[in-house]
Design a protein that fits this description.
Length: about 350
Amino acid sequence: MSQHPSITIAGRPIGINHPPYVVAEMSANHNGSLERALHLLEVAQQAGADAVKIQSYTADTITLPGDTEDFIIRGGLWDGRRLHELYREAEMPWDWHAPLFAHARKLGITLFSSPFDRTAVDLLESLDAPAYKIASFEAVDLPLIRYVASTGKPMIISTGMANAQEVAEAVQAAREGGCRELAVLRCVSGYPAAPQDYNLRAIPDLVQRHGVVAGLSDHTLDDTTAIASVALGAALVEKHYTLDRNGGGPDDAFSLEPAELARLCRHLRTAWQALGVVRYGPAASENGNVKFRRSVYFVKDLAEGEVVTEDAIRVVRPGYGAAPKHYEAFLGKRMRRAVARYTPAQLADVG
């Protein structure tokens, strides 16, 4: 398997040799307003995100209108809500998709979506979506993964709640279905999620096990976990965002506001730049600081042929003379030329 797998979405290469690919997850934070959804595209573009992700489902394509306990959420952010009611509030109407894709193209930001059934895939194909995301709870829906894979588009799979076997099955289904460009995201399906639950060391393990581009779907409340993920090899980071965390939408409470999203984009790219390559020696920015290193200097005037004694040289700053490790090589040697005090001592001066 390749040590450095990569994929390309809408012409942008994604892998550890490229800056982190930042996906701003709109989710349900449109709060039922197409105008707000269009504005959120603009916010993500201005913040420096590479892409925006939406979710393509209706309440009827993702669940059933049941009233039994099976369909009631207990505990957490949406305690007491009926699944059908929650998804009806959060859904991205089918007729919003075309204007959203058109606006994204106008802005120059990539837009793609998480489909939750075949009808959503067909809709997104009709709009020439450049990639697909499989949400964590759908990672076990292998028929859906195979159908998405049949489009031939790049696919991203989140793995919240999935065990090692389920991740392997999802990857296998994607590849058997025809997917040639695959990314797998470490994710914790908590809203919000606790950093200590993320076990980010799984990111390089995903690369090693499956030969995929690895990344992070981050549901924590700040950007520390995401930054750490880049250091461990995350090439793609997805984060929920909103206009106002107190806006009252289903996902607002655990989403970044615009200034925070912009900060995240900057910090992720700074972290990636800091990784660099395996290299030792002074960086270009350090070259002016040789003055502060130590080296061997003459501390008295010496004539040609004079013997160098301990009182004639010292190891001091700056660093323009011979390295301190050569100090003893000067002692007892005769000068090949006359030197003045406070000048750098070079091995070529003695013999």
